[in-house]
Write a structure and sequence with these properties.
Layout (H helix, E strand, L loop, with lengths): L2 E5 L2 E3 L5 E8 L8 E6 L5 E7 L6 E3 L7 E6 L4 E6 L8 E7 L13 E2 L3 E5 L2
Parallel strand pairs: 2-11
Antiparallel strand pairs: 1-3, 3-8, 4-5, 4-9, 5-6, 7-8, 9-10, 9-11
């Protein structure tokens, strides 16, 4: 059974940093690209970042480029999202996803999702 468990969320001040972690199990982790998706209160799901299976290529939505860094440790079956210079608009629940479908928009009912980690950016 595929399981994705996020951790590391919490309250952080604007300009601060936070690292989200996602522990994966139930599949051969090193064979899959992994995704981070977020949902702000009252907003639609938004793709944040992708990292390929080997960890050599990463992609980001424009609003987090230069501030967020995605990484993975295939030996530990872990994927991370380092969030620097956070802003109030980064407040959202962040999900770790496998097999994300983004056509035409993020499809919540497809792929494998963790339970999410809440990030709140506020002073």
């Amino acid at each position: 059974e595929v399981q994705l468990v996020e951790s590391g969320g919490g309250l952080v001040q604007p300009g601060g940093s936070l690292t989200l972690s996602c522990a994966a199990s139930g599949f051969i982790f090193s064979r899959y690209s992994m995704y981070w998706v977020r949902q702000a209160p009252g907003q639609e799901l938004e793709w944040v970042s992708t990292i390929n299976a080997g960890g050599s290529h990463m992609w980001y939505t424009d609003s987090v480029k230069g501030r967020f860094t995605v990484s993975r440790d295939n030996a530990k079956n872990m994927v991370y999202l380092l969030m620097n210079s956070v802003r109030p608009e980064d407040t959202a629940r962040y999900y770790c996803v496998r097999d994300l479908v983004r056509s035409p928009t993020v499809q919540r009912n497809l792929g494998y999702w963790g339970q999410g980690a809440q990030v709140t950016v506020s002073s």
